[in-house]
Amino acid sequence: MTNPFHTHCPAACAEIEQGTDGRWIIRPDAPAHAGGNQWFSLCVGLDATSQALECAIHWLPINAEVAGEYPDNHNFATVLDRCCFLDHGDGRWQRLEKVELIPEGACLRLPSGGPGRRLAVGMPVAPEDLHTVLDLAQASPHAQVRRLGHARRGSPVWALTVSEGDRAQGSIVVQSLQHAQEWGGLRAHAALIGHLLSPAGAALRRRWRWLCYPATNADGLYQGWRGDPMVVDGLNPNRDWGTFTLNEVRLVAEDMLGCLRAGPALAHVVDLHMGWNHRQHPGSAVGVAAPDGDLGPIRPWHQGFAEDLIRRSAFSDGQWEIHRRGRPTFPAWLHGEIGFHGQTLELSRHHWPSADGGWEPPSQAREEAFGIALAESLDAYLSDQAHPALTPNR
Predict the structure, then answer these.
(1) What is the number of H-type helices and E-type strands within the chain?
(2) Which of 4, 323, 375, 380 could disulfide-pair with 47, CB 3.0 to 4.6 Å?
């Protein structure tokens, strides 16, 4: 049988060959800067096939000497069956079911189908997913799409502003995909933008000016199937704020501050991420960066927003926490620049609440629904009470 797989990313991200038993063997490239966690990601296209394809994904060699920051996640053997996705050609990612974990990796079956399909492991997101929402925004009279420049490896860095009229009460900043493997952030962000541009979002775009940065780690999105999409040339975008070794981080920072200086005043900031790789733990939380881990008198406002968001959405297990400042993360940098406490939202990779009170795996539909709920929650909460730490733009 002719190899039905073809490279979907700019450079080959896996070796794929057919074994003697007819099964297709997929060997992903090793991460260039994995920090010891031995995650890998791939995205390949599929030609039309009239029969199902039996496949096996083989592990990378595990380097036990570099346990990294997450020593109990030196590989994702325990969750690989939840990290395999198929786009059937309609642009929507569906989690593959009945993936069998085996000592050397995982076995799965790809159903027959037409052309235009994509198989992804560990990173079900591609530039097409970003450009779908960019095209929607460019066609709308209520959005402005800006290409800020280029990232370290040459990928375009995008920003969007959504608003209608000149009576906005304040500016809301939303950022996502600082880490390209954290696909849920872009999925929710794209749905949020789509909601704002729809008739249902008319009141929200009149009441607020929305500053959207959907893919700060542009190289991770456009080129990240090779190496580790968490980092760029060994640099973590969410540890580069204020340092600005990465051009993409500097571009977003300069655009954001410029827009905020022009007004209206900042109302709130959310940074969308995904929790880490624990099968038994959702890894989701609403986080706030604060000096010495102490929010002082503004703690009730932040906790109130977290509780309101959790109540209005299906936001996993409902944790909220305070992060200490110190590392050059986005929230810490923002607080140092304008004295504003932004919030980090960690979506779960593996656990979301089910209707019967249990748990079920996440899905594209759930992540998109969360994006809409986030827009509505921001509008409702901020309309009732402004952030107590608001300071004049400078």
Answers:
(1) 8, 20
(2) 4
